[in-house]
Structures
1.
Amino acid sequence: MVIGAGVSGIYQIKRLIDLGFDAEVLEADDDLGGTWYRNRYPGCRFDSESYTYGYSFSQELLDEWHWKERFSAQPENLRYLNYVADKFELRQHMRFSAKVKQLAWDEAAGLWQISLADGDRYTARFVVASLGPLSAPTMPSYEGMDDFAGPSFHTFHWPKEPVELAGKRVGVIGTGATGIQVIAAIAPEVAELKVFQRRPNWSTPLNNGPISAEEMAEIRARYPEIFANCAASGGGFEHVPLWGFWDKTPDERRAIWDELYTQSGFAILAANFAEIFLEPEANREISDYIADRIRQRVDDPAIAEKLIPTDHGFGLQRLPLETNYFEVYNQPNVELVDVTETPIQRMTASGIETSDHSYDLDLIVYATGFDAITGAYDRMDIRGTNGVTLGERWGDGPTTYLGVLTNGFPNLLMVAGPQSVSGSTNFPRAIEKGVDWVTGLLEHARANGHERLEAEPDAEADWQKQVIKAHERLLLRDSKGWFTGYNSNVEGRQRGHREGKVRYQAYFGGAPRYAATIDDVAANDYRGIALS
Ligand code: NAP
């Protein structure tokens, strides 16, 4: 049983059906698409180059699909996933509106007992959890939230029906990658926009543009090279990092950054000097450079300073990419409300009350993020051997073997799970690798008559060491982002990484090292996995 019909689940079911497994997908939503089905807010789009985001597994698909924009938007992305599912006739293997409430391991039978919210039950020998790392949205809790008279919703729950924005007074809470996209997209349309910002994020231009038929033909011809480049790079992109920060003069570095700032996507991060992620001095210099860029784009110097992060360096939290985001604050209809200075006190029928002002609003958008990476697992009642829940097991942070298995939860395989590279690299590239590996393991089990597989504790402990080592090298180890498990709206995660219990949520050793490690495990009879 595959749980989730998002980018991972779609490819996972294709692989299993092709190999003749008796497999099915359970999806809580009423249609497929996962993150691209849910996140319908204006401005929602890839920040991976479209042609590095799409699946690579089918030459026909690569030949047929024309990405229209360098960074394609949500409606097109959802169309793409539907196209894939229809082309390969995958829908018939998916059951929608099938919300899994509980997974309980039945040791005597060697099966997972699966209970759905609607009371239906299934059993499965193996469960592949394709739950997505950013699928458990989190909301703040303020007094009076239910009293607000207008519509209010999390960006993940942006309605399917068109939302009237013209002439409206809109409040957006949150300035992560989502907030930054939605703010820039709606600012030209709404009558008034109040942005409630607690901590600013670094953000740099996406530099999006159309892809013509000729360009798409060139991309098609280059696909093998594109995917090889992605597989060879730490972040799963085509960008290649530089080394030798200190070999250049400050002027030479600035010239390189001037060029990177005009390039598209994550070039400014992934084609930058690797030292910026490792050495405080190098990070300070690039942070100062990006801060100056923000100052150049925002007319009011006081507002510019508020938009510049001071609690973390550039690239040490997940970098949001933007289109005209900073210019939005030059518009007369947009106001930045610094809720660190004047905290939100409550919601009222008419809007948001901070410590010094009442803002009258017609619509409130919560761009307040996710219980990232482990949240979707925690929200499901997953009981392994001895009835321990996965949430309990991971209370102080996840531990896994290769991000795929965890001891005490036999036959539960995670695609893009905690401590894999899915959270830290170009997502679909990591997914395809993960799905292929999980599929290989299932084929191996089938071929050898194994009905139970479980991560060995020693192997898991060893992987934990590798995850910690890769993480601790990087300056991001001290940041308060979802990479490191921070979330102000989840009990026990409100503090920074160092101030609280450290959660090692993702593997930061890079995609090639991760791929080499899991391939080596497979080549050695799945070392570290007890097969019986
Ligand atoms: P996020 O990065 O966690 O940001 C959440 C924002 O909400 C933060 O600014 C946070 O402020 C703020 N917030 C939360 N509770 C608040 C409160 N009570 N009062 C004021 N502010 C509050 O979440 P996200 O923006 O949804 O992005 C999550 C991830 O999704 C991204 O990092 C990215 O990986 C993915 N994403 C990808 C794309 C894309 O591919 N293009 C687009 C959007 C999102 P604090 O920082 O102060 O807590």
Note: The chain has two domains: 2-136+372-531, 204-319.
2.
Amino acid sequence: MGEKYDVAVVGAGPAGYHAAIRAAQLGLSTLCIDQWLDDQGVLQPGGTCLNVGCIPSKALLDASHKYQQAQSEFSTIGIKAKSVAMDIAQMQKHKRSVVASLTQGVSSLLKSNGVAVMAGHATLGADKQLTVSSDSGSPVVIQAENIILAPGSRPIEIDACQRDDQCIVDSTGALAFDEVPRRLGIIGAGVIGLELGSVWSRLGSEVVLLEAMDAFLPGADSQVAKEALKQYKRQGLDIRLGAKVVGSQNEDGEVVISYEDAEGLQTETFDRVVVAVGRRPQTTDLLEDASGISLDERGFIKVDEHCQTGIPGVFAVGDAVRGAMLAHKGMEEGVMVAERIKGKKPQVNYDTVPMVIYTHPEIAWVGKTEDDLSKEGTEFKAGVFPMAASGRGMASQETVGLVKVIADAVSDRVLGVHMIGAHASELIAEAVIAMEFGASAEDIGLTMFAHPTLSEGLHEAALAVSGHAIHIANRKRR
Ligand code: FAD
Ligand code: AMP
């Protein structure tokens, strides 16, 4: 029988390690269990996000963006970059070193906060019995007053195109290519497909994205999605909508993909294919039937708004539960649960989860779209600022995109902010704070923004809600 803890956390991804650290900060004896080992058998905390998700993808997105700028944009601003060359091995080495620093950082944080860490696979049985199995001995039974399940997610696989880890890979494989594919097929034009497609396209691949749906980025503001599609196409991404992949065949190191579109059955040949059709919760090998934990029809652990499962003392957070499959959403849930275990009463505000796509231009939004509001019958006003009118945008060659502020027609309260443009991933934080504080568009308009900055775009869009933006031609006097 293992030691007894106040809290045992399964999973050291962003949701799990935040829960564990906050629980330990609050004085609860805490154990964090994870099964992610490196080639030497050493535990790699950080989950998908640090190891094969947010961080490595951003390392490659940033590197490939700089390469592309050096190649084709520097000359306009008077920088002659002779013989710019790409070194994929070094790019991958840089990516691995960033990942290693961060996973080691999480290990140190867990240790310095007094969290006990255990490597192994956890299974939850009857009466909150948690069993951890590993290669290094017999299974250990953990006793814990409270259990936080944070097992995350894994890529969805499709029968039509099964992963072989050579020619057909998932997002993990696509982050590790050691050479630039000549012709790269990506199944799914969602966030992950677009980010990975951008990386390899900038580095020289001919990229084709096959997307089953007719709509492009249906969750985004439609004006933003339209602008994004235009920009991606301009960059050379061949995005085919209404193209459902139905089969694949490996022929002499190439993959022939069959897909159906409005014109019938089509085929395309690629030397590499990435299956990026979404992620599913990693719950199948975690829960014994006797655990009493219920899953929904898609395999997500059923929880209430405070991440409480149906079993008292058992909570679930992160990608394995309903809501956006994003690291920061899981982090906030992890912290909320730790604090609620300690008797505090925080809530996660699911209305202000920022969504970001780290392509160039970046796309970011928070809150509702115009379509959402029209569907629910809420009257609203919208103000739009085009980044083409931004002084800082012009100075830094970043004039693509727009900022849109949507406010309630009666109360003027901000209901959504949508952006496409450089640094949108950073700028959206201002909108999240405004919404979290219940700001009106007028409040943002009355706030002083540093000049010249891209963030003035948010200021102007908020002013535009009531028609008095300074840098947009207005027809009416208000
Ligand atoms: P995970 O990070 O998946 O961690 C779960 C952990 O639990 C893993 O370490 C796993 O080993 C462990 N585990 C599971 N089951 C068990 C078990 N039974 N016993 C022991 N351990 C177990 N999100 C963003 O917010 N921003 C981004 O830019 C972003 N980019 C992404 C790019 C890619 C390519 C991918 C694939 C994902 C990206 N995401 C991004 C999504 C993000 O990675 C996830 O939302 C986030 O990692 C979820 O955190 P989590 O803690 O719930 O789960
Ligand atoms: P996301 O969920 O944002 O990661 O996006 C995944 C995308 O993959 C969605 O837009 C799906 O419509 C798309 N998708 C799923 N299955 C297929 C398929 N067989 N062929 C093409 N696209 C698909």
Note: The longest strand covers residues 137-149.
